[in-house]
């Protein structure tokens, strides 16, 4: 999801997001200035922002998500869809490898049914 954000966020959304994060107290004005001036490309600016916020913890990351949702709903939806697709692929892969808890429970239930049916 972070890589998708870095690739897909527009310059305008990024600038609005930075301003919102300063207003919200997540970033200082000097941090915003640093992100904008020390990074020459949109991708580098987005990557720098992600690095800063990620180090600060879950609460600040949640604030970024909230602001992305209100500033650029289409980007938010796109990122959410990409995340859901990734989780779906991971669940499928785990299921194929026989590593999900659900598979173990299903197998145990099938074994119990067989034992009950085979008993006199």
Give structural notes.
Residues 1-83 form the CARD domain. Pfam families: CARD (PF00619). This is CARD domain-containing protein. This protein is mainly alpha-helical and 120 residues long. It contains seven helices and no strands. It is elongated and about 50 Å long. The model is unreliable at 106-120 (pLDDT under 50).
Looking at this protein, list some descriptive labels.
disordered C terminus; single chain; CARD domain-containing protein; 120 residues; CARD; DEATH-like_dom_sf; 7 helices
SSE blueprint and pairings:
Elements (H helix, E strand, L loop, with lengths): L1 H7 L2 H13 L5 H10 L3 H15 L1 H14 L1 H24 L4 H18 L2
Helix pairs in contact: 1-4, 2-5, 5-6
Organism: Crenichthys baileyi (White River springfish)
InterPro entries: CARD (IPR001315), DEATH-like_dom_sf (IPR011029)
Pfam family, one: CARD
């Amino acid at each position: 999801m972070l890589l998708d954000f870095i690739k897909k966020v527009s310059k305008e959304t990024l600038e609005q997001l930075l301003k919102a994060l300063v207003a919200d107290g997540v970033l200082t004005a000097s941090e915003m200035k640093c992100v904008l001036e020390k990074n020459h490309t949109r991708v580098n600016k987005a990557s720098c922002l992600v690095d800063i916020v990620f180090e600060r913890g879950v609460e600040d990351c949640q604030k970024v998500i909230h602001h992305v949702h209100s500033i650029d709903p289409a980007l938010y939806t796109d990122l959410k869809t990409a995340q859901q697709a990734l989780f779906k692929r991971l669940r499928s892969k785990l299921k194929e490898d026989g590593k999900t808890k659900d598979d173990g429970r299903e197998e145990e239930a099938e074994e119990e049914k067989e034992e009950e049916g085979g008993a006199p």
